[in-house]
Amino acid sequence: DAKTTQPTSMDCAEGRAANLPCNHSTISGNEYVYWYRQIHSQGPQYIIHGLKNNETNEMASLIITEDRKSSTLILPHATLRDTAVYYCIVRVANRDDKIIFGKGTRLHILP
Amino acid sequence: SAVISQKPSRDICQRGTSLTIQCQVDSQVTMMFWYRQQPGQSLTLIATANQGSEATYESGFVIDKFPISRPNLTFSTLTVSNMSPEDSSIYLCSVDVTENTEAFFGQGTRLTVV
Asked: Which residues 68-107 of A have a C-beta within 8 angstroms of B?
């Protein structure tokens, strides 16, 4: 079973920051938080991952709470192309570890 | 990164028949993963395919229904056998590549069973 819980859906105005929360209260010490998104009719796309420190790349920022029981994915300036289902996943950073998907958050970017 | 090619991209099949889906990766990988995504749902892991050994199936999935081949480090096939309309889904393959820890996904095979 998935070890994360996310809101079913969220809306965000175009140009504003989209903040997507994720709860992972049973995360283990060696598990990372990964975020993927799936745009309609495409395969999931990797966004970012982190262990305990906040991370930023060209797509997004990841804020992980100090107790690591929750995190927030931030899309700083959302565009219509960011409309997608966003999945928060916890897994060991081992390339042979399987990914178990939860239900994700359907993010609607509003013009 | 990895480039994953899945074939076919979509198909419409008659019930009772079988379809084999191919997944080709542009680099050698240890594990390949097969997922099913039913309409409007999240991805569900079917099995993990390791080269040179039998695939490991998740609960609710069996080899007779979803036989998997993994003949080398860049290729795998998933067969959906004796199809029924309930098998209508998108089937995706996924890999982890050597120098990264994020997984890469194919674009999926959209299967409709009539």
From this structure: 85, 87, 93-96, 98-104
